[in-house]
Amino acid sequence: MKSICFIIFFISGLTFSQNLEEQIYNAAEAFIANKNDQSYQRLIQQEIDFKNKIKTKDEQLALVFLQCNKAFYLKDSNRLTIAISTYEVAWKRYNDHQLSAISDYDIIEYCLKPLGNLYTKTNNYTNAENTIQQYITLAENSKNKDQYIAGMINLSALYQTRGMHSSVLELVAKAERISDISIAQKEKLNSLKAFSSLSSKNTNDKDLSIRQNMPTIETPFAKHRLAYQLALKNKDYVKALEQFKMSKQNQKEKLLTIRDLAKRHVEEAQLYYLLNEFQAADSFLEKAIRLLLPNFKDQGIPEKSNLYAENTFIDIFDLKARLQTQSEKALAFYDLSFHVANLLTSSLTSQESKLANLISNRKRSEWCIDILFEDYEKNANPEIFKRALNYAEKDKAAVLQEVSQKKTLLSKHPNDSLLLQEQELLKKQEHLTDVLIKSQLGYQASKNDSLNKQLLEVSISLNSLAQAICDKYGSTQNKTLDFVMIENQLEFDQAALVVYFYGSNAIYQFEISSRQHKLFKIELNTEVTKSITDFIHLFDNASVINNNVNSFTSQAFELYKTLKIDQVVSHPNLIIIPDGLLNFIPFEALLTELTETTNFTKMPFLVTSKNVVYNSNINFYLQKQEKATNHQILGVFPVFEDSSQALVYSVDEALAIKKLSKAKVLMHTDATKADFLKMASQYSVLHLSTHATGGDFTNPASIAFYDQPMSANELYSMDIQPELVVLSACETGIGRLQKGEGAMSIARGFQYAGAKNLLFSLWQINDASTATLMSLFYNSYEKTRSTHLANRQSKLDYLNDPSVSTTKKSPYYWSAFVYYGKIETEETHGSVIYYFISIFTMLIVLFLWFRKRKPTIR
């Protein structure tokens, strides 16, 4: 009897399972047959019901099928963000349940390909690359040549979009070695190769060398397209328009999507704009808008609520803005571009993708500031100033600020599981990125396809968390600057604030004090650019300044005036937020007056009259910090004795720090990377006296320990909260310059890891003078507990030290160290004693007063 019951139960369970699988397929096929919003809403409800019942792999596969078709509909409906998340869920389900083992469902064609394309369309370049690399590997393993070539083509197109033309040519060369490629694929590869060959060389259509290296273009469309691109490169806009129209005539319009048509209209509008035919340009932009927003009928400005994450909108609105004659209307269109850019970047998780998207935002900010500056010249209205400054600060150190906000939120809610999970995933993402970079550079053996897969999985998980965190705590996106808070803080700090925006055509300088605002425009002509770069190169080595002191003094004073520091209202403290190349200028070494003296001690350096403090953006300046109650120091001194890289005077530096009662010093073989990583989070002050390098366009910045170096990327995965990091090493503030974000330096790595305040160097510093400076710094720091005061005082003491030779008083030896952080009040031992005496006296007075009082009678 029990056996019969078991068989009946098994058969009924199997029937139910088969029915559920069939129900899922039926629901998906019914939706495919009749796609509309009503059937979509029905499908969502069915999907929720199916998820709660699914048990078998076959049912999981059926749900993947449903979700891929749902995502396809969303993609075609221009709901790109939801489409991406739906494809991501489908891929995760397929991957987690290892569904490739039970089916030959084409996950590449129906999920990964469209997902990769959507990432590209929404400027999520990191996820796009990881996805395409994923399906290239899958296609290679399954020996699916067509999909493998398709992946190579899509990856090449992605690299071409990002301007990585040498990578495109390498990929195309690899693909061309594969036999029996289809004619259509060969044509695509040829087009990619032709455009990247053209873009990676300075040439014109008369340059025979490049024409001979061009691949053969078969179709009339591709031929005219290449001729158009060549004419455009040579600024022959009449010929470019002619070739563009001919390529359009030979294009199969039926194969184009609405988005493709809209992009083509924008491209034609851009050509007419270059030909100064503005009415024609505007008409094509209007056509593009109507294709992407079919319900938009007016000639006015679209509502933000009707827009979606589509990068074509940015091209449309940017050009629309440039066509306007009224500043407010132009700014309104630029604001629409910013809005769409925010929609695109809201789902980005990797800092590489975020940084790549900052460049276009920076250009747009410059256009907006330029419009407002013209209005400001006519009417110096404070509101115009404020709007311009908001554009200047909009994306400055944006990635650094975002990670700081996440860490601040976690510090307020240290037990929140969502925030803890997000931090762990962010650390994992940065660690994987570091491993990927090292494997690409050949420093570390690892399978790139495995890393791409893991990075994609982490990104998908981070995105799913982001919405839950936003729902719980609200958006952390940058808001409008609070000028009342800025002015109050400046008044409290007795400071003036100077903010720079380093654009393509001009540098804008904003000055704020508690009493006034000023806005200046410094044209970036050849002379100004040269004066900035020449001044930076004065610090390439010690002899440059010492061999021609008079040249230095004239350049230092001229740059002081050029950068409008002479216009700043006099205050004891000067806060500078640099930008672009100005990140590498030691402002303290500028001269406030023209002088004929060659005696460095007598020169009117800015440091002799001001406390100069730097910061990455205004919000970092306003950030509240709880002052550390202890000042325990961890010093790291590899020394590297008995080597060509020995830092002999680093030992003196260590001895100076050892005198401080709460200092822990790791020296020689104890100064390992592992020991530093283990101990760093336990100390409020970290001091690293070692070698460092700013890296280059290929290699990231790094800092050396006794056993091995640590790259900036490794620091990104750390989580420390030191009050102060002192980087007593070469080039710790130098790195690849990223527009808006600053230098990708070791200092930035520590700031990303959580350091509140930093003292670091801008060039290759001298070992002996650095040891002297650091000794002077800590002597002052021990007395004041104020980094910015100690930094300045150490420089003044160095300049006035009779034991330091005249030659060594050159600013090359003392001005390398810049302080990024808060202005801190002085805390002398005398003031602490006075405070306790005052409290004690007050208590005695109160005691005597109470004794003299008569008891009250009720």
Automatic annotation (TrEMBL):
It comes from the Bacteria. The chain crosses the membrane at residues 832-850. Residues 569-821 form the CHAT domain. The keyword Hydrolase does not apply. The keyword Transmembrane applies. Keywords: Membrane, Transmembrane, Transmembrane helix. PANTHER family: RAPSYN-RELATED. This is CHAT domain-containing protein. It comes from Gelidibacter pelagius.
